Amino acid sequence: MSDKIPPAGIFPPVTTPFDPTTGDIAPVQFRQNLERLCAEGVDGVVVSGSTGEAPLLEAEEQRQLVGLARETLTDGTWIIAGTGAESTRQTIALSKAAGAEGANAVLVRAPSYFSAAMTPETLALHFRAVADASPVPVLIYNIPKYTHLPLTPALLQELTRHERIIGVKDSSGDLKNLAAYRAAVPQWSVLVGSASLLFAAMELGCQGGVVGVACYAPSLCVQLVREFAQGHRAAAGQLQERITPLDKEIVGKLGPAGVKAAMDVVGLYGGPVRPPLAPLTPADRERVSALVRGD
Known about the structure:
CATH topology: TIM Barrel
Oligomer: single chain
Order of helices and strands: EHEHEHEHEHHEHEHEHHH
Largest sheet: 8 strands, parallel
Number of helices: 11
Low-confidence stretches: none
Radius of gyration: 18 Å
Mean pLDDT: 97
Distance between the termini: 39 Å
Helix content: 40-55%
Number of strands: 8
Strand content: 5-15%
CATH architecture: Alpha-Beta Barrel
Strand order of the largest sheet: 1-8-7-6-5-4-3-2
């Protein structure tokens, strides 16, 4: 793997395991999860993303996670670190720390607390400043579900002028938006953030996905990309039919708590979410278990 080659394939946005007693990061379980995911053939991981409860992590915890991932994934597997924050200064600091710990790229969302002040010009200045200062390449992160600030294809097109910005993750869940992104930035890596759209993304010519389903069913996602690459569209389509309910019912409706519960079902360590996120109800946990088992 080289930082000069844009990321492609399947990247689980890995969860952050917490000790149920102390609430601290559980490093042993984190490393064990990564080893198992990589054994399933994923192309890399995203650390401290939305599924990793990034907004609930301290800066030192984010740095620790990247370092643990780099110690574990010694073969050069892609490590992409979520470093989005509300100030340009903080985003740069998190990006520098991630690069120093061994991240290959950073994933940067739009600042959104002052969303009314975030004009296309302001956002372009922010992303450019981060890319100027980051020691590693930058991927733009469109996650309007949480930021309430959708990034336009025109903004991405503007950012293609910066050689350090190499791609975008689109978690809008909107196929039309994904298609518009693919058309707007042909030179970038475009990664879909919704596993329900993985097959469609491949048809559009996207490079792969950062999808929550890959945290607990990585082989399904990896196999879909491989079947598609080999021209086996029917087989890829059948895999998509299996993946879609896992995405919509677990990732889409239940968020990090649902993903962690699904990981527990398959023998990975999910564990608790960090407050104020709430644990699943017993009924939701049983629903997750049934979906994962294919009942």
